[in-house]
Task: structure prediction
Amino acid sequence: NKWTDPFRVTLKGALGETDASGNPVLQNFAKFLKLELQKELADLEPDVKYIDPTYMVRARTTNASDAIYCSILGQNAVHAAFAGLTGVTVGLCNGHYVYLPIPPLIKRAREVDPNGRMWERLRLAINQPVYREDTAAATAEVR
Result:
C-alpha cells in the first residue's frame, strides 16, 4: 500500500544535512503531499497550490491577534471549500471577512512604494524598525 510507505519518494534533504548557513535542511512533506494529491486526483484535474512558508517575512513574533486572524481566515477557507467555491481566497475588507476572486488579484503585480503611506502604516502596525534615515524623517512627519 503506497500510503504506508510515504518515503518511497525522495524528499528534499537527508536527515542531518545542513545548508550553507549551517541550518538543518528539513524534509519537505508538503511538496510530497501535493504530488500525491495531483496523482490520486488526476482524473479531476486538480489545481493544487503549495505556498512555501519560508518566503513569508515577519518583523516580530506572532501574538494573540495574529492567531485569531489566521484561525478565522482558515475557517472561512474551509467553509468556501465545503461550499464548492473554487478560484477564491479569503480576505478582510472593511472589517468583513470576504471571498475574493483570485484572477483579478493576480492579474498584475502589486507594488508598494517604500516611501509611501501604505508601507508606513504596515511598518508601524508590525513594529518593524526603521532601517533608513530618510524613512525615520518621514515617520516623524506622519505622526
Observations:
- The chain has a mean pLDDT of 76.
